[in-house]
């Protein structure tokens, strides 16, 4: 873990989403230096499924040695953002550091505020264990994740740099290596276990899959299946699977080695499968003859959009439109395969 240096003492940090997860971890890291933390988040009352509120986070920040200003903020509401900034200025004089979820703005803002305010984007190399990851990834996903502490430490490294350090897109592990950190197992939920690459970074899923298989990282799916009799199907889903089938080859099967099951809701929905383990590959209606490695649940409309390139699987997953059970590394493999098929769909 990266030790605190006290450099942020007296600094004011405006953090969106600071009531839990990554935002709170960054807040607590800065608080240990004696920083002032503006907690800008939506949760003012306890959520039945998600831990923490802006007020419980404020108490933790104070206990860690910082000062806290909890503000109810929905980042989609400009008035709430302006109000929070005004309260921050009134209480702490100004804020010197901010954490927002706006990576696309980095280059423009870095140029606009050059010499005055540094603007950088920070991204994790691996999946980070948060309440959102539990909801989207399902049971067992935490063993493939790192703790939020790695993002907090990486953010702390950025906070210590001068204003001339701006306009950068930074990977957490890379900047920590520059700080001399060598043991990254301390950040793992399950030290030594294969880690899931972050959804938005271009990693090599084949390597991850090989490692995950050796650890038995694929959550168990149901053993016994009732085979549904094939039905005559028609519509966009059936046409999508027809095109996918025409695109299959032994090379695709060899490169993928996975069976995907799709639970689709809506018109032309039901259970479908894509077998990329059997020779030549296969698709069809109903459950696959062998156990699926990945089960994906979504609407038929989103399924068609996803396979035609109009909806990115990572965005569907992160927004809750796509639910995934099973081997996440193999799910990522399917996304790369879809990118190759988009021109035909």
Describe the structure using short key phrases.
single chain; 345 residues; alpha/beta; 5-stranded mixed sheet; 4-stranded parallel sheet; 13 helices; elongated; Hydroxysteroid dehydrogenase like 2
Q: Explain this structure to me?
A:
By secondary structure, the chain is of the alpha/beta class. Mean pLDDT is 84; it is low at 203-234. The protein has 13 helices and eleven strands. The longest helix is centred in the N-terminal third of the chain and has 15 residues, at 78-92. It is elongated, with a radius of gyration of 23 Å. It has helices spanning 21-31, 54-64, 78-92, 106-112, 131-137, 149-159, 172-178, 205-214, 236-247, 250-256, 300-307, 313-318, 328-341, and strands at 12-16, 36-41, 67-72, 97-99, 121-123, 169-171, 258-265, 270-276, 282-285, 294-299, 323-326. The N and C termini lie far apart (47 Å). Helix 2 links the parallel strand 2 and strand 3 (67-72). The strands form three sheets. It has a five-stranded mixed β-sheet with strand order 9-8-7-10-11. It has a four-stranded parallel β-sheet with strand order 3-2-1-4, with helices on both faces. A two-stranded parallel sheet has the order 5-6. 37% of the residues lie in helices and 16% in strands. Helix 1 packs across helix 6 (149-159) and helix 6 packs across helix 7.
């Amino acid at each position: 873990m990266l030790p605190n240096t006290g450099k942020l003492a007296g600094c004011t940090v405006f953090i969106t989403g600071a009531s839990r997860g990554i935002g709170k971890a960054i807040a607590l890291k800065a608080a240990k230096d004696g920083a002032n933390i503006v907690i800008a988040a939506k949760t003012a009352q306890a959520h039945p499924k998600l831990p923490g509120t802006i007020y419980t986070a404020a108490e933790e920040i104070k206990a860690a040695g910082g000062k806290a200003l909890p503000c109810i903020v929905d980042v989609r509401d400009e008035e709430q953002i302006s109000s929070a900034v005004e309260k921050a200025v009134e209480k702490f004089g100004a804020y010197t550091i901010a954490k927002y979820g706006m990576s696309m703005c980095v280059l423009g803002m870095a140029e606009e505020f050059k010499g005055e305010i540094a603007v950088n984007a920070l991204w994790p190399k691996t999946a980070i264990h948060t309440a959102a990851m539990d909801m989207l990834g399902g049971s067992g996903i935490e063993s493939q994740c790192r703790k939020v502490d790695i993002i907090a430490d990486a953010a702390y490294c950025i906070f210590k740099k001068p204003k001339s350090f701006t306009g950068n897109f930074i990977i957490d592990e890379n900047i920590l290596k520059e700080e001399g950190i060598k043991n990254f197992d301390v950040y793992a939920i399950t030290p030594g276990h294969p880690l899931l690459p972050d959804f938005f970074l271009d990693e090599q899923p084949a390597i991850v899959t090989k490692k995950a298989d050796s650890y038995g990282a694929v959550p168990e799916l149901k053993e016994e299946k009732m085979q549904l009799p094939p039905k005559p199907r028609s519509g966009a889903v059936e046409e999508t699977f027809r095109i996918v089938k025409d695109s299959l080859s032994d090379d695709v099967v060899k490169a993928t080695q996975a069976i995907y099951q799709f639970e689709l809701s809506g018109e032309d929905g039901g259970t479908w499968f894509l077998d990329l383990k059997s020779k030549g590959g296969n698709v069809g209606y109903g459950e696959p003859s062998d156990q699926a490695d990945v089960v994906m649940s979504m609407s038929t409309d989103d399924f068609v959009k996803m396979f035609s390139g109009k909806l990115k699987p990572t965005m569907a997953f992160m927004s809750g439109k796509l639910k995934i059970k099973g081997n996440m590394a193999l799910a990522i493999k399917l996304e790369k395969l879809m990118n190759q098929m988009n021109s035909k769909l």
